[in-house]
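In response to a reviewer's request, we include the raw inputs and outputs for one of the modeled complexes. The two entities were modeled together in a single run.
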Amino acid sequence: MEEKVVNPGNPDLGAPSLPLAPAHAIRMTGDAHDGIAMLSHLFALAAGSRGYHLYSIPEYPAEIRSHANTLAGVYTSSLAFAPYHEPIDDRTSFLLAMNPAGLKLHENCLEKDGILLANSDSFGPEELACAGYLENPLAGKNQLFHRTISVPMAQLTNHAINLTRAGEKGAILSYREVDRCRNLFALGMLLWYYSIPIDPVLRWLKQKFSINPSILDASQKAFKAGFIYSETANVFPQVPAYHPVESLSKKGRICRMISGNDASLLALKHVALKTNRPVLLASTSRPPSHEISSLAAKNTGDGFSFILADDEHAAASIAIGVSYGGGLGCTAVSGIGFPHQSEVVSLASAAELPLLLLEYQRAGISTGLPQRVAQSDLGMALLGRNGEAPLVVLAPDSPSDCFALTLLAAKVAMRFLAPVCILHDLLNARASESWLIPEPESLPDFEFPHFASDSSSGPYECDDHLARPWITPGTPGKEHRLGGNERRLNSPQVSFLPQDHLAMNRHRAARMQRIAEFLGPLPVSGDNGAEILLLGWGGTKNVLEAATALARKKGITVAFAHIRFLNPLPKNMQMILNSYPKVIVAELNSGRLFALLKEKFEFNGISFTRQDGLNFVIAQVEQAIVQFARGES
Amino acid sequence: MITHNQPTDFASEQEVRWCPGCGDYAILAQLKKTLSDMPILKEQQVFLSGIGCASRMPNYLSTYGFRGLHGGAVSSAMGLKLAQPNLTVWIVLGDGEGFGAATQHLLHACRRNVDIKVLFINNEIRGLSRGQESATTRPGTLTATCPEGSTDNPWHPCALALAAGATFVARSLDVDVDHLGNILQRASAHKGFAFVEILQNCKVYNDLVFDNLATQHDRPEHLIYLEHGKPMVYGAQGRQGIKFENASVSIVQLNQGGDQTPAIHDEAGESSFAAQMLATLENPDFPECIGVFRAVTRICHHESFYQGTRTPSPEIPTLDLQGPDSFPVE
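The model returned the following structure tokens for the whole complex.
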């Protein structure tokens, strides 16, 4: 019979109208072998079931196989959670440090009054030296945080698992096996502290380890021990203050945590199913685009396939070959691989073929810092081609938006026979968030008039969208030649005449305007008649949105808009910019979007940027809004 | 399925615009003949190319054609075969592009046995850009960018393709139209990666580079016509032959008594090593070889690619949006 564990701190957790904890940001850090990824995943699962919206982003070790307990071997997961429809908080109020190296790297992120929960068993002299601590930061005169909770998690886990089994022949687990359950002990403590029910985790463990009863038993014991220990040992000085929320609008719906990469992949698979055309992703091993490559390779089938190309030019060329053959050719690319593909994008523009680029921005120039966050490639995406070759550029605003936006990108590419680039950043590609799984019938279809192979038009006769019919090899009686040479309008005939070139340039620009109409206007949220507009793009949305909420509390009227369509820009861009006396454009680069907007439109605005490979901090954005609104900057 | 096409059915509406006397005219003519003889519908034939004189070929054929990037055709052809495995896909490359921008795409396509037919038209010069040296230009050749004569060591295209794992490798001559026609027939029938080097004269920038092979009269003295299972002999009445000895090739004089016997050509040997040696033989020390160096059968790229789970068409399409760890909100 399953042991029933109740939350002693909050015995009425099961009632439906219970208060939720306010927004919190917690950070879990430790050695690569401390099981932080699983801990974070299970915390998200449990908190998500409770009705929280979660956003989590991992930080991988700097080295693949580093020595134990070194700074280079630290794995960290940052997790922000808030009730639905409430802004997140990015101030870390809880830091779980499973070893000194993790603490060393993240000691500056914890709020002064935040809680540090540490596995004291890992804070021996050797581990401290590895991390560069001369004295123990958990206790004594060098104690870093006054709310430090030291727990000998390894010993307690061992007791929980092995002492209860004394006398049972062969039941004692090895040190190594016990050690792998330490993260579950920590998870139990965290869930108790946040009053989150533990049943989803127990269910998960049962499913995961059903074929190994011994491990299942050990993991359940370690997990429950952490939960119970928090109560009985009275380790936490106080539990967070809860405030009531009106309702859980997501109640009863099915959720999951989804990363941007998961979402993009699901969308590509959906396109293959709906169009019944091959969808192929071709990419290389260059980070961080290699992450979706690995994911794609494990999820081929049903018309979706993946190929690892030998370089980026080959990847994009394979993709355009697929599109020429009537499929959707996609490529994933990062960093200096992106300029390698520039000429293929140019060819797709000239030949009018669909091409989908999933571009994963990273910090730095050249090889730079492949694992750091930046919105570094907007300039390249907008302008990085020879001649006037337009590229549709879209950017998702959250991990789950990668699903909707990839579907939209595929639709634009196939409807207009045009190259489309999705500018990802690590804030949405690698991060995960809660996602309400859409009903299958709510997903878009892909029926376009020019899919019909019996079209009576010639291969370059445009329809009212200024798109040519997609006539593919194998279609009888429609044989034609196409390619990168300039041609005559509405004809495949190669032409080097000035008037034809001018007409084609105008045609390509006009088609971008049709695409802008197809994509629709930019929505603005926030105060009517606001004194200031905050404008952003990409994966910074949740931080920017939270900053506007804080600024509003200080009496500033703020509007907020987050651009998902960067080229062509939304048709109402000029109108929006002119509707507010002041505009702040926030982005993780040197101010590329700001420069673009300034070139095209007249408005009173400033650029707010960050370029050190990290995301914005909510308080800093809030400060920028307040200062600009009050005329202090 | 027989299509009963005539060679003229494969001419496009475009006016052919190569220099007078260019070897490409002969290649185009043989290509049209080959296409008309193939039991494949015209709409199933696709020609891809990049940039260069030879790369104009797709414009002059009435099949589907795609003139893309300098160096991009091989990879695009690979993508096309994955999208539509049933198409017959041809690529036309000159030596400037083929061993310039396209080199690594080409070598990888060899090892992957992508089911495409590559016509590597080798005139040992970059013609369209007005006469610069390529990776096949012989040392000493005067070019636009080597006025003192080219100094770099050239590649042997067929030897490189063989070393990279191509399953069909052959060489022919633009002026030997019957031989060229036969080789194109063989290449078109090959299942897998077919590499055909066609020695072609550039009248303007590298005229007479294949002068030793140009006239029908001279050819037997300088050339071995490779035939599977036949001895490799040359010269008038086959006076001379070649044999393999100590991992190298030597010349044997025949009909002079003794036990000198020429080696027998084997297209399908276990190793491509002997074929690679044949592909590097050069006048004047050795005869040069034309014909099929190697023809073996191996699984094609698109076949191995779609094996297992990577099925191209779904039977029961479903999309699992939930994944393994979804949960109801309580």
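As requested, we also summarize the result in words. The longest strand of chain A covers residues 74-83. The first helix of chain A runs from residue 36 to 49.
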